[in-house]
Amino acid sequence: MNNQDCIFCRIASKDIQANLVEETEHSLAFWDISPRQPIHILVIPKRHHANILELTINAPDELVDLMRLGTRIASEKSSGSFRLSFNTGAEAGQTVFHAHGHLTSRTPKDQLA
Ligand code: AMP
Ligand code: ZN
């Protein structure tokens, strides 16, 4: 199911290095290579699905696992204000066609003390 032409499949199989945050049985979280906010982490299913729609239809258990991981990291790393968003389709800005959520926040927990 996974393929060598997909950069996120290659990150999931540890063939390409990424700055890993956490992983579960089905999902992986790593820092975005060009962050747009102080927290900018990507959460992906380890298996290849082209986008969030296909992930939802074809593997709802993997979807739940991904959402659990994304929201857990959001609670750990942000003040509680964050976005978890899924660009879907080229016209919506999707450039990597392996489902991924952008976890972004302007208020990291460690800057609030
Ligand atoms: P999207 O435009 O929604 O498809 O998002 C793709 C994201 O993947 C962008 O924010 C890129 O900065 C990020 N990205 C691309 N290649 C890598 C990589 N090797 N490691 C980490 N993030 C990456
Ligand atoms: Zn892939």
Query: What share of residues are in beta strands?
Result: 15-25%
Derived structural class: alpha+beta
Our measurement of the CA-to-CA distance between the termini, rounded to an integer number of angstroms, reads 45 Å
The fourth-level CATH homologous superfamily is: HIT-like
CATH topology description: HIT family, subunit A
What is the total tally of β strands? 5
Number of discrete domains: 1
Overall mean pLDDT: 95
Structural summary, described in words:
With 113 residues, the protein is of the alpha+beta class. It has one domain (7-111): HIT family, subunit A (2-Layer Sandwich), CATH 3.30.428. 27% of the residues lie in helices and 21% in strands. The protein is built from 3 helices and 5 strands, in the order αβββααββ. The protein has helices spanning 7-12, 52-58, 60-77, and strands at 20-23, 27-31, 39-45, 83-85, 101-105. The protein has a 5-stranded antiparallel sheet with strand order 1-2-3-5-4, covered by helices on one side. The chain binds adenosine monophosphate and zinc ion.
Provide the fold topology:
Blueprint lengths: L6 H6 L7 E4 L3 E5 L7 E7 L6 H7 L1 H18 L5 E3 L15 E5 L8
Antiparallel strand pairs: 1-2, 2-3, 3-5, 4-5
Bound molecules: adenosine monophosphate and zinc ion (ZN).
Q: Short description, anyone?
A:
The protein is α+β, with helices and mostly antiparallel strands. Helices cover 27% and strands 21% of the residues. It binds adenosine monophosphate and zinc ion.
